[in-house]
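Example record used in the benchmark description.
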Amino acid sequence: MTFNAEFGYLEALVRGYKSGFIKEGEYRALCNCDNLDDVKLTLGDTDYVSVLSQQAKLTPDSILNKIVQKTIDEFNFLRAEAVGQLSTFLDFMTYEYVIKNVCFVISGLLKGADPEALLAKCHPLGQSPHLKAVLTFESQTSSDGLVDLYRTVLVETPVARYFEIYFNMELKSDQPTREIQRVYNEAEIDVVTTMLQKLWLEDFYKYCLALGGETAATMAELLEFEADRRTISIILNSFDVSELNDPQSRDNDRKALFCNFGKLYPECTLPNTRFSKASDLASLQAALEPYNVYRNIWKKAQETAEARRSFNERLTDLFFEHEVKLLTLAFMGQSHFACFYAYVKLKEREHANLKWILACINQKRDSKDLNRWIKIL
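Model output (structure tokens):
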């Protein structure tokens, strides 16, 4: 009853932002560009006209950075104006990127990378003033420096609880500094990040369900798909990890990374199921057979791929295409928060499309490669 009074203005605003997405015809015009100057002219007919008007020196990175910054500015305005539950919802959305940035920075510092270079590569939606504190450390790989970084990450950032849960599970030593260094040196950083994002995703899912109404229904479908996609990706990636050749060890390590919700849950976590026995593409396909959406996506990937590598790439693209459909449908309902989530995720896909097209044009790649973008709306 009070949704419009509290959140109606920002919902209307984000729906207005939606009208600025690049259309199919504009993508095709971009694909016909011969150089980056042509790209700038073509983008002059889109919502990005003012972004590039003052851009003299054109490179794929400079163009993309300006485009991404426009989205960041729009999101930051929404976040600054949001109140109450919407403010918390938008904060939750940024935690995914904060986790990625923190893991990236910690891993890079332990390897002796330049902190300023690391911060420059962090995702802008996950920027935190606490990340800049690492610039004050004289020796990031020293014991004292790592302890300070550890404390900063766990205490000062909004994702502290996820790191605390993870390290409480992984660290059994009385010397946490050495143990943290061991985890980030020996474990794949992608595995650490996946575990932390799993904890965040479960937390976000609970929050969305607690909101109830249209937000809970729409976000449940979007986040359940994300959880299922992660499960399938984790199983696929486990096929190539030599340390997981032992079926029992492989199954246990995989299950630890699965979210505790989704269409594939709880079957994917139960013993003696097709998921627990999945050890190759054929057995994973059999496990997905009862799930219509994933069975159809898998079948379509097989029909358009020949080698295993191209199959994985095609499967990834098809997952993105299905996600875009779900995100687009999120704009159909009224008086809910899912459209804010959909806007950011669709913008990510638009940025990925433009990054690919810009790189292909700059490298003079074949038109067959150039047209591998995913239609947004």
